[in-house]
Specification:
Number of strands: 4
Order of helices and strands: HHHHHHEHEEEH
Strand order of the largest sheet: 2-1-3-4
Helix content: 55-70%
Shape: elongated
Strand content: 5-15%
Structural class: alpha+beta
């Protein structure tokens, strides 16, 4: 997975820069085009075509753009051509995810996942969002998930950080400290 991210990162940055420089469309439209291209590339039958060495780069790009019809602009089609020439069309799902993170950073938004033992009350979610907004200096989009195995507290996944405030995490730390 990390090798895919490493390969996809320069292409995601290039897409982001192209989207920012575009005078006709913006980041959201590029995100939409990337999402569509990503869905097409991830399709099982399309993935077989992308991996087939007998199919040229031009043919794979034409296939993707043909299915998308007129939903891709000229700059995006050129971008897909570069991906095709470098045999990187299969990276589109990872490129799209990285582009989304770059877009969120530019818009000063952060998607945070909170895993708790029981559902967060509205007041708790609000306080947590405010605290995280202050810590990361951006708008927070909070997604919550229930996992009873953490016993109590919560585990917060924000950007590349994990904040483990769960009872299970605290018990594991205590066990590690006692075993030394």
């Amino acid at each position: 997975m990390s090798s895919l991210t490493t390969l996809a990162r320069p292409y995601a940055k290039a897409a982001f820069n192209l989207a920012q420089e575009s005078s006709t469309i913006g980041l959201s439209q590029w995100q939409d085009m990337l999402t569509l291209a990503s869905q097409l590339a991830a399709d099982e039958s399309m993935a077989d075509v992308l991996e087939n060495p007998l199919v040229s780069a031009e043919q794979t790009v034409e296939l993707i753009t043909g299915v998308a019809d007129d939903r891709f602009d000229a700059a995006f089609k050129r971008y897909l051509s570069v991906l095709g020439e470098n045999r990187r069309l299969a990276l589109l799902p990872e490129i799209t995810a990285l582009f989304g993170r770059l877009k969120q950073q530019a818009e000063r938004r952060l998607r945070v996942k909170v895993v708790a033992a029981m559902p967060l009350e509205d007041a708790q979610a609000s306080r947590l969002s405010q605290a995280l907004a202050k810590r990361f200096d951006c708008e927070i989009e909070l997604d919550s998930e229930i996992d009873e195995s953490i016993l109590g507290g919560a585990v917060i996944y924000a950007a590349d950080q994990v904040i483990d405030g769960s009872l299970r995490g605290r018990l594991n730390k205590l066990a590690n400290a006692l075993s030394r």
